[in-house]
Structures are given as structure tokens and as C-alpha cells.
Amino acid sequence: MMSRAPVLASLLALLPVAAAAQAPISDALDGMTCGAFVSAAHMAWQRKGGDWVDADSKPFGTVAYAETYVASGAVGQTVRIDVTRLARAWMQGTEPVGAVFLAVPPGGESGRARFHSRESADRGARPKLVLRQAGGRTSEFEPTADSTLNCTTTKSLGTAKTITVGPDSNAILALPFPREGLAGIEQAELVLTVQKQYGGGAMVALYRPLLPRAEKQEVEPGLSRAYPGDRGIAGHPAVVFAESFEDDGWKSRLSSVTRTSHAALSGSAREGRFEPFDGRALKVTVPKGSLLGLNALYRFKEKTGQEPEEMYFRYALRFGDDWDPHISGGKMPGFAGTYNRGGWGGRHADGTNGWSARGTFFQARDHGSAVSRLRGIGSYVYHADKKSGYGATWGWNLGPTGALEKNRWYSVEQYVRMNTPGRKDGVLRAWIDGRLAFERTDLRFRDVPDLRIETLWLNVYHGGTKPTPQEMSLYIDNLVIAREYIGPPRHP
After folding, report:
1. Is residue 342 part of a domain?
2. pLDDT(128) > 90
């Protein structure tokens, strides 16, 4: 089993610090909610209301970095929380730098404290980080993001003029902590101003947010480590199929490619901001006013004589500069066993008729935040416990997550293991650049043994039913299907 992973060095973040291991912390409408740390990409917290690490580095632990008490009726009171211990940890590399999580500690009183947020009309009452350094220098910083995580709503509260801490509300703030160039910290304080206090006194505890990109994890090498550029990888005994998209025979090497697909080999020269991963690549385009980019299948029984119970596949993915799905999300490659009966297109998967676990891409919402500049991918799954007609949509919320930049190559790997018929032990995993990004081990794909992995479904589809208002393109390269974990491709 793989642990959570750090961010890829080039991913964007709101926290203006030198460190790379950051999560996209956003209080815009596409950012943090009770259920998700990136709502636009369905990236769920491990627990509703947000995740944290305590001062003993224990997830959801009870040892706060600091605590303070807000007395009943303390409207207008200035509250100072000592964050020196956490600030010194940031100086030593603890991530995420500058982010704090506020919650009621176990056994804390039932009151609620509502503080002015960074959007408050009273500028002097806004939150701030006050640093007192060696030599008597004092610096103040306002948050770059802050939000209440309240589960009475599914919407982001990040634009509200207050943040609230209470039995049903946690709060998170991102502070621009300047880790570089500090001459040592004698004291660090988070200063808050009470806008309203109700329900009795309130105890407020400070923790460190638990954000996937800040958790350290090494790249997990796979069988591809022995094959630079995937050259010769098809000869590995665990490899079922490998395609490098270097010649026009790629279509014939698959089982089928729908004629209405818009997929062709790119040249090795630059096309706009495109840069090849290794030689040529498959350029998939969803034309303006259209839905379909690619619909291709690799049928296991046709190609290998049998349908497997478990399988991995990996491909290199690059979103083009024009990949801006502002109208709708859509489908991406994944395994399936629909048998042309169920498990796709609104045909409910009932455990006997079919299933699918395609990838998905999410609608991009332009709110001017770091999150808005990323393109989210995840899983779109028809399984027997999904009662409605359409599939379940899950964002990849571990390690590097499914938040990707445009104009950058990524290794995307997925794994499916069929469940024991009638039991909830099916597995779906995904990796980004060799780091675990998603995992479910409790899935019920089937109730009968004859449902297996029928196909690898290479699908790029905009929607739903809404066509794209502009042309969008992505690139696929170095596709490998195998019985073992493959790992990211090595450059030749």
C-alpha cells in the first residue's frame, strides 16, 4: 500500500512561499467546502468538515498547537493565538506552510465564535499573522484565503465576511508565511477579532491542515523502470499490450476505433505550446459544437482469449492549451464490462448486466484562483451500489490528486480488481506520476461471476449532452496494459 504523496513541483498554489509541496488552497467558489478541499474537482476531505494533523503529527489527533478561550458576549474582542511552535515547524520544512486549521477541541464548550474574515469591511478587524523576529522586527500578513467549513451547506463559504468555529463549524486560513529571509522567530501570533459570540463560551484549538500534496511520498517504480521510453516493454511477461503511437497502424492494433473519433498522430515538432513526450503522440480533439473526441476499445477476449479479473493500464496525458471545459465535464479512458447491456449511458448497473470505471474530467470554473487554473480528473463509475441511472463521480483526492496543469505531461495509471460476486471488495486505484491519487477497496461491480474486465475503453467525450463551444485538444502517448503495476514511463 502506498502512502500519500507530495505535490509535483510545478503545480500552482495560493500560498506565496518558496516550497513546492503545497495544496491549492482556495476560498473562491471552486475551492473549500465542508465536503471537499477542491470542490470543482470533487476532491473530498477524508472526513467531512476538513482534515487536520495535531502537534504530535497524528491525523485527527487531539494535541493542539495552541488553544484559546473566547468568553461569552466577547463581541469586538481581539483574540491572540500563539502559533510560534507551528511557525518554527514551517521554517524547518513542515507543510503546508502558512496554513492553519481551527476547531473546537474534544470536550470544548458548546459555544460558537464568529470572527471577521479577510473579506470584512472593517480592515482593522481582519485576521493577520504577526511575526516578531530577532532584533525586534515585527511583520504582519493578512490571509490569502480563509473559509468556514460548515456541513449545513454544500457551497463554499469562502467569500463570507466572517469565519466561524464551533461544534458544527471548523475554519481554515492560508497565511503568506515568508519562510525565506527570516532572521529567526521569537513569537508568532494569529490575531482574530470577534464579530459575534453566541451559545456560551467557545474554546478554539489550532491544528495543521492535512492536505494531500503536503504529505511526503516517493515515486513508486514499476515494471517500466527497466524500459527507457517503454522500448521493449511489450516483451515483459506481465504486459498485455503496449502502444507508442509512432505510426498510423495504431488503430489496427486496437479492437475498434469509432469513425466519428477525431484522433490523429501529432508531429514531433511543436504545435502551439505542445511539446512531445517521446516522438509522436495521439492528438485527440473535440471539435467546436461536438461531443466526441475519441471512442476506441481494446477487447481482452478478442486479443488475449480471456477476460481478466484484474488489470492495470497506464498512459501519458497532456492537456492542450485550449483544454478549457467551462460548459461541462466529460469522460476519459478507463476499464469497463458493459457487454452492451448496462453500466454506461444512463443504463443502471444492477450487478448482473454490466459496469464501467472510466476516467472523467471536470468542468473548469474561472474564479481567478489557483484552483481555476488547474484541470481536474477523476473516476466515473457505474457500480451496483449506485442506485440512480448514471455513474458515480469521484475526484482523485490523495497524494498529488487529480488537479493537473495544462501543457504538461503526466503519467496516469489505473487499476481495477473485480469484487467477489455479491461482496463489496472490488478495488479501484489511480496514480499520478507514480504516486497514489485515489483508492476505493469497497466496490461492488457485480453479483455474478461472468461479469469481468471486458475492455479498456479509450474514451474522450465532452458531456453529458452539452457540446463544447470551442475546440479542445489533449494528447495521449505511451499506453501500456499489464497484469502488474507499470509505473511512470522513463524518458529515453
Report:
1. yes
2. yes
Q: Are residues 88 and 120 in the same domain?
A: yes
Cell numbers of 252, please? 489496427
Q: Is residue 3 part of a domain?
A: no
**The model's pTM:** 0.90
Residue 356: name the closest of 414, 286, 434 by CA. Answer: 414
- Cα(479)–Cα(254) distance, integer angstroms: 11
Q: In terms of residue numbers, what domain contains 48?
A: 36-209
Q: How many domains are there within the chain?
A: 2
- Continuous segment of H or E residues that includes residue 34: none
Residue 12, in any domain of the structure:
no
What grid cell was written down for 112?
460558537
405 Cα distance to chain centroid: 12
Cell 474514451 belongs to 459
Does 277 lie in the same domain as 176? no
- Per-residue pLDDT of 168-213, as tens digits, reads 999 999 998 886 666 678 999 999 999 998 888 889 999 999 998 7
Cell output for 283: 492528438
pLDDT digits (tens, 9 = 90+) for 229-242: 999 999 999 999 99
For residue 251, the one-letter residue type is K
